[in-house]
């Protein structure tokens, strides 16, 4: 199976299993999505979704967020990994949004990545899910699957992102990002993986 055939098979299989994937983080708009994605680093989406209803009831805009003290915010998000660091980032980026962007989340990679605590993956998720701009955010699941399926050498997240963008059609990137996350969790896990039971690995082979 050549690369083109492999890509077509993966797209078809993921469409069969997850035809309408929804972002697993609860959010209301671009700002709450940005905060949710920032919180998701080093913790699970499930844990973030337990925290954000309380947080967004108190503060769902930059203006409201900066009214929280550092100790108040830390108490709310304490169960998320790296909570002290995330607390500082959330308060700083909220102030920056007010000072520089009229309280709105900017829709450019450069502007998003300049915000405290916002890396390339977080910016990619916001660009894709909040603004519909094609991006291919690479998390641990996608990085692992790309290597396992022989789509990338897996040496860096940025290399994996570049390889996936080259292999798959641009208009599929946003959906594929979510489909691969769900598929990895359900059918192609890091541990206890049985290639001959995986709908994709059993057909295309596996690198590990």
Would you write up a description of this structure?
It is a single chain. The radius of gyration is 18 Å and the shape is elongated. It contains twelve helices and no strands. Helix 5 packs across helix 6 (83-101) and helix 9 crosses helix 10. The model has no long low-confidence stretch (mean pLDDT 95). The protein has helices at 3-17, 30-39, 45-58, 62-65, 70-77, 83-101, 109-113, 120-131, 140-148, 157-167, 173-186, 201-204. Helix content is 60%, strand content 0%. With 208 residues, it is mostly helical. The chain has two domains: 3-22 and 136-204, Orthogonal Bundle (Endonuclease Iii, domain 2), CATH 1.10.1670.10; 30-131, Endonuclease III, domain 1, CATH 1.10.340.
**CATH 2nd-level architecture of the largest domain:** Orthogonal Bundle
Helix content: 55-70%
Q: What's the Cα radius of gyration?
A: 18 Å
Q: Looking at the structure, what is the overall shape? A: elongated
* Mean pLDDT level: 95
Query: What is the CATH superfamily label of the largest domain?
Result: Hypothetical protein, domain 2
Largest sheet: none
Query: How many distinct folded domains?
Result: 2
Number of strands: 0
The CATH class label of the largest domain is Mainly Alpha
Computed structural class: mainly alpha
Give the distance, in angstroms, between the N- and C-terminal Cα atoms. Answer: 17 Å
Put simply, the count of helices is 12
User: Which regions are unreliable across 5 or more consecutive residues at pLDDT < 50?
Assistant: none
CATH topology of the largest domain: Endonuclease III, domain 1
Helix/strand order = HHHHHHHHHHHH
């Amino acid at each position: 199976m050549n690369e083109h055939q492999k890509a077509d098979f993966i797209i078809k299989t993921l469409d069969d299993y997850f035809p309408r994937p929804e972002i697993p983080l609860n959010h209301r708009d671009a700002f709450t999505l940005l905060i949710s994605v920032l919180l998701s680093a080093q913790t699970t989406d499930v844990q973030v979704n337990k925290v954000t209803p309380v947080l967004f009831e108190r503060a769902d805009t930059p203006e409201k967020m900066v009214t929280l003290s550092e100790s108040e915010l830390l108490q709310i998000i304490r169960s998320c990994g790296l909570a002290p660091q995330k607390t500082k980032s959330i308060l700083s980026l909220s102030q920056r949004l007010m000072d520089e962007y009229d309280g709105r989340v900017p829709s450019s990679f450069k502007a998003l990545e300049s915000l405290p605590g916002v890396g390339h993956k977080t910016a990619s998720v916001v660009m894709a899910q909040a603004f519909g701009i094609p991006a291919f955010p690479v998390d641990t699941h996608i990085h692992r699957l790309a290597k396992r399926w022989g789509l990338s050498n897996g040496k860096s997240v940025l290399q994996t992102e570049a390889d996936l963008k080259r292999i798959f059609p641009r208009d599929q990137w946003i959906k594929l990002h979510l489909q691969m996350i769900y598929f990895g969790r359900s059918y192609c896990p890091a541990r206890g993986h049985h290639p001959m039971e995986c709908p994709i690995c059993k057909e295309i082979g596996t690198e590990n």
